[in-house]
Structures are given as structure tokens and as C-alpha cells.
Amino acid sequence: MVLAELGTSISRALQQMSNATIIDEKVLNECLNEITRALLQSDVQFKLVRDMQTNIKKIVNLDDLAAGHNKRKIIQQAIFNELCKMLDPGKPSFTPKKAKPSVVMFVGLQGSGKTTTCTKYAYYHQKKGWRPSLVCADTFRAGAFDQLKQNATKAKIPFYGRYFFHILLIFSLYSEHVLNICLC
């Protein structure tokens, strides 16, 4: 939900900039302010947003651009690159090791799709040759175990848990060479 609204807001800001007849500092600032507002409303860290805005202004120096350059395209490319840079942690993503078990814990707000995402994550790793299993660690939500059981059965992934499962038992369940996925 939040990502869809963020994407809509960024697209709207870029569209408003594209509709402008003349691209000048005012139009650039309005576009950046709209994107900044959207990012901050989506709980992006203020320092990241401020740095992004500063970097875009450094890259897109409208006074130094020669006539004939497509200013809209340069601005859009700078915004795209800075947004991508925000999302790139600068290090490789987690990859499980074959020699030892791995535990991946998904944490999120109620209704954000953790159970479904965990099942998809386990299914992906199953197709890659791993032997994943799902562990129900949601001790509060009614139906959590049933939902996990239904999803895991459909995907043919082993699952563990009970209707009232103590969270400390989760970490004693995994065995060698198995990628375990925990729900919280």
C-alpha cells in the first residue's frame, strides 16, 4: 500500500515536471519537493532524502547545461539513479551456505503479507535445490498456523508449529543443511 502510494506520488511529480513548458530551477525544485514530501511520508530517513535532493541538484546544474540538451531526460535520469542508489546497500545480498543451516526471520505489521512472502521465499529456495521449512512463530494471531499450514501444504514445503507455539522453541527446530524460515 505504502509503496504503491509512493510510486504514484513520484510518477505524478515527474509528470508535472514533464508538462512544464520551460524547465528551470523553479520547476526542478517543485519536482524535488514533491518527491521529498512523498519519501518522507513513506518514512524514508530524513538524511537519505536530504542527501538525495542535494546530489540531484549537483548532477542537474541547469545553468551549466548547454542549449539543446534534453533537461527533462537529464533530471529524470538523475532522480532514477539517486533512488536506485538509496535502495542499493552496497554489499551483496544474503545467500545461505550449503554447509550450515540458516534462519531467516520476517518481521512486519499485521496484514503486510509476511506469511505469503515467507512461503514464496521458501518456494524460491526449494526450486534452487534447498530444503526449506517454515516455522510458525506468530503466537498471537488467530489463524496464523492455519494460514501457514495451507500455504506450505500447497507449495509442498514442510512446516512446524502449533496453535500456541512458544517463540524460543523456534531456534531449536532447525536441522543441518536446511534453510529455515521463521514467521513473526
UniProtKB/TrEMBL annotation:
Domain SRP54-type proteins GTP-binding: 101-180
Bilayer-crossing regions: none
Cellular component per GO, a single term: signal recognition particle, endoplasmic reticulum targeting
Protein name as annotated: Uncharacterized protein
Principal subcellular localization: cytoplasm
Function: Component of the signal recognition particle (SRP) complex, a ribonucleoprotein complex that mediates the cotranslational targeting of secretory and membrane proteins to the endoplasmic reticulum (ER). As part of the SRP complex, associates with the SRP receptor (SR) component SRPRA to target secretory proteins to the endoplasmic reticulum membrane. Binds to the signal sequence of presecretory proteins when they emerge from the ribosomes. Displays basal GTPase activity, and stimulates reciprocal GTPase activation of the SR subunit SRPRA.
GO molecular function, a single term: endoplasmic reticulum signal peptide binding
Domain of life: Eukaryota
Gene Ontology biological process terms from the UniProt entry: SRP-dependent cotranslational protein targeting to membrane, translocation
Subcellular location: Cytoplasm; Endoplasmic reticulum
